[in-house]
Design a protein that fits this description.
This protein has 497 residues and is α+β, with helices and mostly antiparallel strands. It contains 13 helices and 21 strands.
Amino acid sequence: MARKRAPKKKPVRKASAPALLARVNSQIVLEVYANGKVGTYVDGYAVELGHISPGTVTRAKGLNEGLPVASFSPARKQADKEIEALARRLARAGLLEYRLAAPRGGELATIEPQVPDYWPQPAKLGNADTIVLSRFAYLRRRGNELVLESPRSPALFRIVDPKIAAAILTLSTPQKISALRQGKNFVGLALLGLLVECEILFRVDAKSEGLRAHEGDQHLVVWDFHDLLFHTHSTEGRQANPMGGRYPYVGTIAPPPAVREPWHGEPIDLQALSGNEPASGFAELLAARHSVRDFDDARPITLTELARLLDQAARVRSKWTSPLDFGEGDIGPDLDYTSRSYPSAGSSYELELYLTVNACEGLARGFYHYDADRHALVPIPARPQEMEAQLSAASFGMDALAPPQILITIAARFNRIAWKYSAIAYSLILKDVGVLLQTLYLTATDLGLGGCAIGTSNIDLFAKMTGQPFHAEGPVGQFALGRPLPEESDELPVGQR
């Protein structure tokens, strides 16, 4: 009797991977002319982007609707190189976004870069890998959109397909890739790889619980979610939201008054009690303090003047060590402390000064760290274009005609203060920045110099200049310093004091 042959197994068709497409964002339209000239309009201004070969014109126009990244990167032909160069130029200018398209049509998500040099490179994941959601990741509503982001991530994800949001929820605990692929709502390795690359997801050991100590380095461990979010979203460099004096609520609410309306009740007049004695030197110094935005380039500040300012405002005065005492004989490790001329939460003195020197008599142009213990300046190698970017941003932030003679960047060693304080660490840092800025203001005024606090700083640029992770030590304030112009007056226009 003949044996029956086992039925042939039907071949399993592999599901097509989602396509990643690059396209210009909704703020602009890419203009590609028949002769190969490329340009665009950004905020009403024409921006030229160079030329491409006439043979690639039609293909380049595809960046308006979406061009598959795999079709030109990595580049294989000369035409691919031209398209990739154009796409990367757009990316550096913050004008490119990426669309993850479902294999059968439709859109899964749109990726919006938050840093100018972001380029999608999905992490490679295998069945044996275990991944979990970062404790810094969050989903939120933005207008009528659902957005997945993290203060650590160089890009955010605009979620289009609701099943992605549901899949993200399952990753609150570590999940093995092989198990995820068996699920009904598996979102695909392409999206998971992009999320891992953006540090919204991260790999862990199979037996790990994916908790705080398992994500990132020791500097990241001390960060609370709300602190890191506020740090990245109140500075430049790692988010693409509009910043600065843009008057966003004109037409929505009336301008708030400069002085609060009085409370009801009988006021107690203090004017007669203030006295008519001559003002003290300190009172005169307070009255003389004002912001100076334009400096005398013909007479730059001297190294001696800079040394005196740093000595009076920021130098370490004394040092001591004391054991951590929890009470009832429970003694912890020894802690180091310093004292300086301004107060600091818990004597933490977590703030460091970095000087971008543009013009200073007796000191070479460059980037320096102020060693407050040794009262010394230590040069740090920095590229000229990075220094120029810092100085240009400072003059723009002050609404000044020229860069300052010296830009002091106040950076925080976050772990120094977060090691002690929970939930309030970042708010304490900002309070310390405020008192240090006032100390710099008063010291500069006393020395006949001028200064101006600056409200923005670029944490990504600072990380490149120092070579440190942005979450280890980063800028939390800036102060422009120099010699005032001879005609500098206390009678400043509205909004300039």
